[in-house]
Amino acid sequence: MAQATTIEREEYGLWIDGTDRPADDGRTLAVEDPATGEVLTHVAAASEADVSTAVSVAESAGEEWAARIPKERTRTLLAIAETIRENAERLARIETLENGKPLSEARGQVRRCARHFEYYAGEADKIEGDSIPLGDGYVDYTVHEPLGVTAHIVPWNVPIYLFARSVAPALAVGNAVVVKPAEETPIGALTVARLAEEAGLPPGVLNVVPGDGVEAGAALTSHPNIDCVTFTGSEATGREVATAAVSNINEVHLELGGKSPLLVFPDADLDRAVEETVRGIFTNAGQVCSASSRVLVHEDAHDEYVDLLVEAVKELSVGPGVDDADIGPLVSGEHRDRVAEYIDLGRKTVGDPVVGGDVGDGVGYFVEPTVFDGVDNDSRIAQEEIFGPVLTVGTFADETEAVELGNDSRYGLVAGVMTRDVGRAHRVARDLDAGQIYVNEWFAGGNETPFGGYKESGIGRENGRQAIHNYTQLKNVCVRLD
């Protein structure tokens, strides 16, 4: 089947109160195709006034949504999931065109998006409080109530799924939401919002305000009538978001990235270790917060592992996402140049990569999958998040050193362990400072498993039942009976 190479509309508006509308001041953003550098479409750029309008609309619409009995919200979220599945190919092509990722990866992310609405549909009518025994003469119980209006700042790397990751649980418990998608990738969020209302979500419960972070993002996170802010993105911006949220005494949830280690022990299945390494670092061209970007391999297994890894990387294809190459372009020219700077730094401090290293200077924002070997753990390319298809490989001598090196990072989002020794797997998982540990498979788990980081990788957890409590407030009721 020939794949679409253009976006569906020449211009998109803001999505507020169930209507497509221009920005208050008429400004727009250009959305590029990372595979060609050409402009795909233009999108209305929300002003501070537009954000205020969206928040006001959400406040009003949210009252009716919160008052619905839980099983009605369950049915609506299930209908949204089904509508997303019915439009899966359309949404996947949108994600590929505006983000650049291979079409097969985009299809997988759309499936995860639908599954997320489905999962939280199942949770909406199971949010139960507790009965607390205070003795004769009292009845005491707790109730989980929606916060009100929640703000969601969605990044460009996995836009459709990460939209669902926080929006679905927020809706499930009765909140109304305002979403600001990344400037680079707003079309998926706008399309899913429209589909949600086609599926029965009341107008105004889900609003999308594309725009830049300086005006639209700041206006949303600092708005006095926002009750919770969820942000996924860079550490620097996350600090600004947290400061704005705290100034309004709001809850804040942050996922801020990582430099995740994969520890390969000598008893590991090295073929599988290489397969998981490649999947972990080169999915979405390495533009994944939880990428396996820092491999630490036992010195006895190093040479064989690296030989297998180099051969596997050489087999990867690079090309436009619509052609479903293994690795698509990076999201923008600016980001490609940033990744190129890290490759140059690696050459100066470590030496030439053992494979890859070329950065395209023609059409599109392409970077070859790149592996640096013999990298000291204190090197900048081993410590800083590159957010591209660049892998560092270092060695360790024993289990103790493996854990020490794995933890030697300011991040703590994810870590992985490759070993056949069950005891070792549990010991190392216990000792690693990361919010999620993968054993013998990178990206293990799913929508059901809590996800979030230690240290500078963020605050809070998304996914699983834990996320429900991100978007509720707890009320205690104590009744004296006599």
How would you describe this protein?
Helices cover 39% and strands 20% of the residues. It is α/β, with parallel strands linked by helices and 482 residues long.
Any low-confidence stretches, pLDDT <50, length ≥5?
A: none
Number of helices: 15
The rounded distance between the terminal residues' Cα atoms is 74 Å
E-strand count:
21
Give the tags:
482 residues, alpha/beta, 6-stranded mixed sheet, 6-stranded parallel sheet, 39% helix, globular
SSE blueprint:
Blueprint: E1 11-12, E2 14-16, E3 19-21, E4 28-32, E5 39-44, H1 48-67, H2 70-86, H3 88-99, H4 103-124, E6 138-146, E7 149-154, H5 159-172, E8 176-181, H6 187-198, E9 206-208, H7 213-221, E10 228-232, H8 235-247, E11 251-255, E12 261-264, H9 270-282, E13 294-298, H10 302-314, H11 333-349, E14 370-373, H12 380-383, E15 390-396, H13 399-407, E16 411-412, E17 414-418, H14 422-431, E18 436-439, E19 454-455, E20 458-459, H15 466-470, E21 472-480
Parallel strand pairs: 1-5, 7-8, 7-10, 8-9, 10-11, 12-13, 12-17, 13-15, 14-15, 17-18
Antiparallel strand pairs: 2-3, 4-5, 6-21, 11-20, 16-19
Helix pairs in contact: 1-7, 2-4, 2-6, 3-4, 3-6, 4-5, 9-10
